[in-house]
Amino acid sequence: MIAGKNNKKDSGAASKASSKRSLKPKILIAEKDTAIQGLLASQINLQYCESFTINDGDELTQQLIINHIDLLFLSDSFIEVANNDVHPQTLMNKLAALIKRIKIVSADTRIIVISSKSSQNSIPGELMEAGISDYFSLAIGEQRFLAAVSSSLELLVAKSQAKRTEGQNFIEQTLSSYKRPRRKTQNNQFINRLIRNIPGNVLLVDKAHKIIVANTSCEQFLGYGKKALNGQFIKDLFSPKLYSEVSAGLSEVTLHSLDQINEKDFESIVITYKGEGVPVRCFMRPMQFSGQPGYVLTLQDITHSLDDKASHVAQLKWQHHLNEFAKRFISLPVNEFSKVIKELLQTSAHFMGCERVYIYRLDNARRAATLSYEWSADKETLKTFSRNIPIYPDASEFQSLAECRPLLLTPKYNVKIKQITENLGLSEHLATVDAESSFIVPLSHKSQVYGWVGFDIQRTGRHWQNEDMQNIEELAKVINQAIVRKKYEEMRQSTHLKLIETHGKLSEQAYLDSLTKIANRRYFDQVLRTEIGRAARENSHLSIMLCDIDNFKDYNDTYGHLGGDQCLQKVARTLESSFQRAADFVARFGGEEFVVILPGLDMRGAFEAADRMRRLLYEMNIPHTSSPLGRLTISIGLTSVKSPAPESASELIEKSDRALYRAKYRGKNRVYAYTKKPL
Ligand SMILES: Nc1nc2c(ncn2[C@@H]2O[C@H](COP(=O)(O)OP(=O)(O)OP(=O)(O)O)[C@@H](O)[C@H]2O)c(=O)[nH]1
């Protein structure tokens, strides 16, 4: 008998087959201001997503249900209030109430609130309580707002991509990537050990409708003791009315060959040990075990209610945590990289409740992997765990990584030395550190694996959950971007140093501007050509910033030519100290113009950097009495390209110059990015 709140689902409606959905994340914009609508759409269009816009509150519920929205941008301007003077707390309460209503209709939709009315930057408590995923105030400025929107979207897309390798695919890949022992008893032991650590609620069912093995997570989910489900009939887990779909699937494997049978994906209700019904989505994938056909059955809990709140809040914090680090890595100087990576590993291990997290890097010849970074709760691990692992390219474990697939490892005890060549030796090491299991996600660049991130579980009682795999893949993405960026920065740094070395001190004059002691136009031309070549080879972005001091003629007239010279020196020093990334290159372009090369930054990133620069100089408040603002300001023209043509140096400069002209034309003290639009 199914008891409790889910009874009403036992009407047959729950067993309907799920409709096919596109894998593109779906985004709904609930915003009345067309300018903000446009800003959001501009970021969404850059991602692999589908978006919808509504202007009317009545359409909200309908859209959420019909389109299975993954992410909702909800503006506080959407809340109807009697007049504009309404108390901010009343507005907040109304917003929280609306979010709670949305969560009832569409529990899985992530909600990001956009506030045009409040300048508060942290997430208001009542909205967090109601279940939002993030909160952006437009007061943070347009560029930072766009960057925040973009990183949320990137994470959403990464998550949806991670989902594709989740669950069944992962189980199948994990099982097939291991070389099975020959003897049947050994085979069963092997499957048992492997399946028990797999995340999600997994059951292996044979054609006689019997459970071969249930994993630990599934036992916990259904409230059964250790191995208590093994050998039981699967029908005992379903109410009779809802068993038909499972039963039909199992009959198929006795009648057809496995490749003729499709996977099954349907909703049903399972009965726990205590007799309670829990709505689940069932995924059935036909598979061969010990030479016999059967099914891998995964049960995904779909109890959509406020019960999910704790995990929702945890998920929200995780996303926030990754976002923060992703933003920090963008402008991080190379010498701070190790410190921040270690911080990321430690905080991530705490989040995940794991005892050890580490990054291994392959050497250039791919013959060995070396431990690059590690955080461990138990310092003893550092001594015992191998820092250098020999790589056997044919090893099954390495094959998984080389194909960019995540890997689940369980310890291998009592191994003979010669067997080690069949794997990376990682499983043996797990045994030596007494780990329960490890999740390993490859790090790759241009489809080449160069290392991996791994999490160990050493403490008993913690089991992998479905979200864990997704979370680790998202973390690996952030680490990957950071490592690749660091590599490029280092390469550039050495190129610049080499240039200086080659030309030596004797030609310092030829390369440095005598007044400001920063690179001169000639040096700039050389570096620009090198960076264009690199961006073309690496298919990466390159941005150029042309900065011009506003009303500098008047400055000279007011403070004299010497005063003008000192001012140029001050601006040059400010520019040099502001662009800290090793790749950034600042030069005097001529007269009162400076130029900055920003490799790897796209238009958005470059715009942010340029505007930060403009503001910094404005805030320095250098007196300029004959300027309308009474202080020194600069105007900046910007252009950005991806994978430029080798001969495009003059074109890039010309475009930056045109953008600079527009910045001046529009009133100075501003940044203008080059577009094809006429003035
Ligand atoms: N002190 C000093 N002045 C320089 C140097 N090189 C160029 N200048 C001066 O910079 C001034 C540039 O003036 P303009 O090109 O008219 O531009 P502006 O007055 O800044 O006007 P906008 O660019 O439209 O804001 C000229 O007066 C140049 O003499 C230099 O090395 N030292």
Total domains, how many? 4
CATH fold-type name of the largest domain: Alpha-Beta Plaits
**Ligands, ions, cofactors:** guanosine-5'-triphosphate
| Distance from first to last alpha carbon | 74 Å
Low-confidence stretches: 1-22, 414-421
CATH superfamily of the largest domain: Reverse transcriptase/Diguanylate cyclase domain
- Please state roughly what percent of the residues sit in beta strands, choosing from under 5%, 5-15%, 15-25%, 25-35%, 35-45% or over 45%: 15-25%
What is the spatial order of strands in the main beta sheet?
Answer: 13-12-11-16-15-14
- What characteristic shape results from the CA principal axes? globular
Number of DSSP strand runs: 21
CATH class of the largest domain: Alpha Beta
Characterize the structure shown.
This protein has 679 residues and is an alpha+beta fold. It has four domains: 23-149, Rossmann fold (3-Layer(aba) Sandwich), CATH 3.40.50; 167-304, PAS domain (Beta-Lactamase, 2-Layer Sandwich), CATH 3.30.450; 334-487, GAF domain (Beta-Lactamase), CATH 3.30.450.40; 504-673, Alpha-Beta Plaits (2-Layer Sandwich). Strands 13-12-11-16-15-14 form a six-stranded antiparallel sheet, sandwiched between helices. Strand 11 and strand 12 (368-376) form a beta hairpin. Helix 5 (142-165) runs antiparallel to helix 19 (603-620) and helix 11 runs antiparallel to helix 15. The longest helix has 38 residues, at 466-503. The chain starts with 25 loop residues before the first strand and ends in a 6-residue tail after the last strand. Mean pLDDT is 77; it is low at 1-22 and 414-421. The structure holds guanosine-5'-triphosphate.
